[in-house]
Structure formats: C-alpha cells, structure tokens
C-alpha cells in the first residue's frame, strides 16, 4: 500500500526503483536506514557564534514570510520526492530544512524552509516561503500533487506568523503553540512560527511578555542575514535561473547527493560529480570611489549612515578600469540594504579562492570592482565600488568540497587503471 501511495507523488519525476525505496521507508519508519543521511555540520552545535551586531538584538517578526501547510499521510513522501533535501527517513530529518523547489533543468524555482511536524500533529508539515512566492509555490505543488493524500493550505498572516530569534533572546520553547527550530544555515539563530487565530498579533504579545527586549525590524534581520552570505526570496535567488550550488544550498543540508530521484536531479548530480562551481553568492559591501576600504578588512561592515544608490537587480559587476575582454562581467548584483548586499561572484576573479590548479587571478592589492547600471528615468550612467567577502564558514566548506572532488577524481582514475589491468590479463 505504501508503495502505491509513493507512486502518486510526483509520478512523472521519479523512477520505479525510488518509488519502492520511498514506500519501504514509509512502511517501516522504526527500522534504521542502511545509509545514514548526512546532516549539515553547521545545522546545530556549530552555529553558536554570531556577529557582534546580532548579539544586541532579540527577535523580529518576519512579516515577509508566509506559511503553507501540507497535512496528510503522503506529505512527507511527496516532499521527499520533490525537493533535493532529505526528508525521509523521518527519524533522521532535521527539524528545519533550508532547501528549494527545482525545475526539470535543475534551476531553482523557489527557495523554502521545510518545518518538520510537531509531536501533537505528526502528519502536518509547514513550508515557510517568501510571501511574494507563496501563490506560485501553491501552483507548483498542486501541479505535482496528483492523487497524493494530503491537504494543501496557504495560511494568511492572521492564521500563521513567522519569527526569528537571536541567541540571547528569552526562552520561548515553553510558550503554548509556539514552534521553534534551529535555522540550519551557518551563523544564524532560530526560526519559529505560531499557528492559530490572530496569529501575528498573538505572537507579538507572547514574545513581548517573555522577552525583556523590544522587537526589532525586518531590516535588522536583512542586514544580519546578508552579512553572513545567505540569500532568500525571488529577488536574490532568481527564479528559473539560479543553480542550487551557486546559491550555497549544498553547504547546509539543502541537497542530498545520495538520495533517490527528485525533480531536477540530473543536472544537480552531474554538476556535483563532474563540474566545478565557479560562481557563488557572497556578501558584499558598497563603498565610494574616493573612499577605499581597508585592505585587511575581512567581513562586510554595515554603516546605517552610508547613502548609496541601490543598484538594480542583476546589475553587472566588473573590474574597475577594465577594457575589452578583461572587462567582462565578474558578477551580478542581487540585492542589498544600505551599504550591505549580496552578489553572485566569480570566485577566482573576485576572491583569493583557488578552485583548480590554475589558481586565483585575484590581486588583493590592486584589483577593485564596481557595479554599473543606467538610471531608468534619467538614463544617466551610475556606478559604485563593491568588495566581495568570503565568510569563514563558506571558505571552509568550499575548501572541503575541493578536497572531496579531488578524492573522487583519484578514486575514479584508480578504478579505471584497475579495469585496464584486468582487460590486459
């Protein structure tokens, strides 16, 4: 029976072998899996260090986030077959998963947090999504739902509210109706939600009663998130264009490279095993042409008094003073607030990271970059200098990824050599 239910979920995107495997997991959740899933090393104990600015804050209600509920016996199976992150087996699933919905070409359609069910209702899963993407995600889920047994509902702000907690916030685990999960992304705090009548108003009242600090604003969360290099929403993660590895999903459990079929798997797995991810989303800082940043600055510093024109989304970033071929785009501006932002950067050109034996072309002493665009109203050409930073968590993850790729390459060469020797014999 479980196998039949599994076959109803995203039937067009999975093979029969994976259907049987998912059905067996649902049928016997109490038995241990042969292969342990690989949770992100940043998902729990290693996310205890936070920026100095974040330590001054307590909590913020995320009014730009919306909850979508999937309730029913097929909800877990459906999500497991649709997103690249591991959802099954349930006993090994993290409480909160940061992942995305992909299209058949392996491009990100919409990013989302998947919240594991509570003990009170083990069949109800919640998707936490950008409010501007909620209706499109509902259509995408309905398209693949087919006859899967679960109810789908988008919650209004009155029915469900989302909030973010910095680590020094008061403990809200004991507040009735409030669910809190660790944000799986590096250097982030905890995420929570409250579902019920007048959820947003009730949430603000309950947090205020438990916390001695005032509520902060969406912009505070925005700066904290961008400073640590994490993108969210359709503006920063361009729908149908962004790749999951370029958006860093592979470094905090958003992709499982060992699970069975899911929508968009082919290109994602091929890139992991044979390709080199040369571009990634990085935190950046804007600065004036006549006021350069210190050469030894290692992280973006938010300045609330800095007044910079905000570049449009996907504005080109290029090396200052470059001409001809050397002036080709080295990155794309994705969005920002004040002098802090995110950009999709070519790592070997805009940073000191070396991805291959060729090494990095970046010169820390001389290389400077600028984002340029044309004003839509005045048609005036504008530009502002920009510097990319590689957060320590991302640098370590990239270096470990390079080592793993090298180990896989050596293992393949060794296997090929052994096969050739067998053929000769």
Characterise the protein shown here.
This protein is an alpha+beta fold. It folds into three domains: 37-251, Gyrase A, domain 2; 276-390, no CATH class; 394-425. It has eleven helices and 15 strands. A six-stranded antiparallel β-barrel has the order 10-13-12-11-14-15. Strands 3-4-5-2-6 form a five-stranded antiparallel beta sheet, with helices on one face. A four-stranded antiparallel beta sheet has the order 1-7-9-8, with helices on both faces. A hairpin with a 2-residue loop joins strand 12 and strand 13 (340-346). The longest helix has 33 residues, at 392-424. The protein is globular and about 60 Å long.
Taking all Cα atoms into account, the compactness measure Rg is: 23 Å
Order of helices and strands: HHHEEHEEEHEEEEHHHHEEEEHEEH
Number of domains: 3
CATH architecture group name of the largest domain:
2-Layer Sandwich
The span between the termini is: 50 Å
Major sheet summary line: 6 strands, antiparallel, barrel
- CATH topology tier name of the largest domain: Gyrase A, domain 2
Relative strand content: 15-25%
Supply the number of helical segments: 11
Helix-strand category = alpha+beta
- Unreliable segments (pLDDT under 50, ≥5 consecutive)? 1-14, 19-57
Strand order of the largest sheet: 10-13-12-11-14-15
